[in-house]
Amino acid sequence: MQVSEAISSRRSIKQFDAGHRLSAPEIDRLYRNARLAPTSFNIQHVRFIRVTDPELRARIRPLAFDQPQVTDAAELVVVTADVQAWQKNPQRYWRNAGERGPIIVDSLLGFYRGREWLQRDEAIRSGAFAAQNLMLTARELGYDSCPMIGFDIDAVGRLIGLPDDHVVVMMLAIGRAAGPAWERGGDLPASEAVFENAFPQPSVSVA
Amino acid sequence: MQVSEAISSRRSIKQFDAGHRLSAPEIDRLYRNARLAPTSFNIQHVRFIRVTDPELRARIRPLAFDQPQVTDAAELVVVTADVQAWQKNPQRYWRNAGERGPIIVDSLLGFYRGREWLQRDEAIRSGAFAAQNLMLTARELGYDSCPMIGFDIDAVGRLIGLPDDHVVVMMLAIGRAAGPAWERGGDLPASEAVFENAFPQPSVSVA
């Protein structure tokens, strides 16, 4: 499937065929593509928890407003990220870079050190890049998806043993659609989202 | 271009053909696809500032470690998001939803109200979804891209007139590559990024 077709046909689906399972090659392609999303300074800090245990799915569902995709989708993944990955043996992220490696590692340590807000933003940003790759790869495989943030983030984190220095970015359900997407709720025009060089300035009234 | 090919061939490029410009249909496709990325509760809060003014490019470049893609790439976009979009006439995001509309709007107001961390995370998350669509659409159009966070975020925000209730998510350069990507720095194995049901627990030593 072409990129633009995957993007334009991607809609959030909440009803999935609970009897369908993904093949091993499909699962491999999903997570290979997810891991190919960019990370700043190649810190590769995104961690994917595939929820394959039906009992765990059943425990998560009431934490997510009882939404059916939690138990019914072929794949449910909690996208998380290691907020401290930047300082966990960062040499490994640049081990193939030769003489340039140590210079890049010094740069990345200086870039993140002491900037907790940036470390956290980076986790959310990278996790979302990867999640978008998952959603579009799902389309390519003939599947649909539902990105989710409406759940008890702390409780789900506890259920998956989230380490203290990681964050939950979102959940994502993927599978064979068993119902249509909702109608589009109300698209804003491009003129309210795309600007050149600066935000439109409010007009100044001259008294 | 197929989705998987776009994902696997996407690499960060820092050298661009400074003489190349995108056509109007290419620009339209980029931002149409960017705007089709999902947002939670359809709040559509991502705002794209296309930096087309060469003088503004020249002012941004020293704020971004003098990286050449800032001035040389055909397209430079500052991806931002309106952190308060959820409470700015949210009825418009669900105007086509009939009787369901007011119920959804009540839900979204309750979801975001008082949760400043979630409002900010959502801005970063949605901006990153959209940026990934831009990067993959660039590949489909035969172009390359460079996602950037290494710049003076506050200073760039001032240059583009960023409103106080918006955040800068990242910058993205897009254009015709004039040089190769770096070798891959050092890929982590899938076994360090993809887990089933829970994070691996550290082994407990019994005294």
What characteristic shape of chain A results from the CA principal axes?
Answer: globular
Mean pLDDT of chain A: 96
Oligomeric category: homodimer
Q: Kindly give the count of domains of chain A.
A: 1
From the 3D coordinates, which CATH architecture of chain A would you assign? Answer: 3-Layer(aba) Sandwich
Q: Do you know the CATH topology of chain A?
A: NADH Oxidase
Counting H and I runs of at least 4 residues, what is the number of helices of chain A?
7
Poorly predicted segments of chain A: none
Level-1 CATH class name of chain A: Alpha Beta
The CATH homologous superfamily of chain A corresponds to NADH Oxidase
Instruction: Outline the biggest β-sheet of chain A.
Output: 4 strands, antiparallel
Please give the share of residues in helix of chain A.
25-40%
Please indicate the percent range of residues of chain A in DSSP E strands (runs of 2 or more): 5-15%
Strand element count of chain A: 5
Order of helices and strands of chain A: HHEHHEHHEHEE
> What strand order characterises the main sheet of chain A?
1-2-4-3
Determine the N-to-C terminus distance of chain A: 58 Å
